[in-house]
Amino acid sequence: MTRRGGFTPGFPLVFGREFARLRRRPFLLALTTLVPLALMALLTGIFSAGLATRLPIGVLDLDGSDLSRTIVRMVDATPDAAVSLRVGDLAEGRRLILSGRIHGLLMLPRDLERDVQAGRRPEVVFFYNAQTLTTGNLVLRGVAAAVQTAAAGIRLSLRTARGQPMDDAQSSLAPVPVPVQTHALFNPTLNYTHFLLAALLPALLQVTMMTGMAYAVGLDVETTHRLRILRRLGGGLWPAMAGKVLPYTLLFLLVLGLADAVLFGLLGLPLRGMPWLLLLADILFILACQMAGLLLALLLRPTAGAVSVASLLTGPAFGFMGIGFPRLAMGGFAQFWGALLPGTWFLMARIDQTVRGTPPELSWRPCLVLLGFVLALGLLSAARLEIMRRRTDAARAPRLPVTAEAVP
Questions:
Q1: DSSP-derived 3-state class of residue 104
Q2: pLDDT tens-digit map of 273-298
Q3: CA distance 212 to 245
Q4: Residues 6+ apart with CB under 8 A from 275
Q5: How many whole angstroms separate alpha carbon 12 and alpha carbon 349?
């Protein structure tokens, strides 16, 4: 069979056959394109605001004084919390927190204003659900900032009422003799689009790419007969496999490109690094996920088993990427699992080139790890394909008849 442009004539046949198969198999089309696009649209709609604001909280005001009402107004004026309900007792506030109607309860004790004017230190208590890390920390931050501001104003007014000069009163309110300045380097606005959504999309694509590739390849290698048909269509096993993998590479690159277009164009994700390095990481990430799905399809039978194992490996991947919990603080097994996933290294390269603006000489490590994934998984898949090719050749080899003669 002659070659044209470096490919056998069967390569374009298998290449076009895969696109035609997407029309005939709705599940494959949904798994590789429709489902990730729909989930991306859903996540974009959820996190499009960037930052959660005006989270509802309740207030239990046992004092009813001018000071307690001032504190409530200051808490309600913060961007993080909004006073939506006033409760009669702690039991009612607990029920509202557990039901999810409010994210916290601010309790102002009795005799609050009297104790403050007498120089005592009354306690303002705030209850919140620590299991909801994001909402709980946000409302806690808003309430703490408002109460501390109110307390500073009260102390300042008390000192000036006693005749202390304003400058001396303000300087005496400093909590430590040496002030500490803190600067958030990479995400000062705590915009969830810039780190949470930008991490969720690669984790989602990792699941769909690996399972989709395992399913697509498994359709043609599940039995020896199907593998023989694929080999005949491609004019050989290697061009046939290349023609089968490449269409999905282009589809996944298109899906990831659409996700990046939404993130950078619509949601304003910063691109402080090198675009070409981010594109290189994108391609290596897609190829690494494809090689993993290909290897699973070649090793496991039936195809449903390969898809199940791929989903089992990648489903909980987001928890091991170091976004919600730092990888350095994880146990040995969690760090090992995270290191075996291409998405972990791709996310590292992505954060370096977007919000951090890391120089290229410091960003090569995750790209080299992704390249190692592609080469290692590709070589294992090639070895498995060679074994399968030899088995099909041995099964097709003609068997010579065996005759037996009696020896006198």
A1: strand
A2: 889 999 999 999 999 999 999 999 99
A3: 11
A4: 353
A5: 34
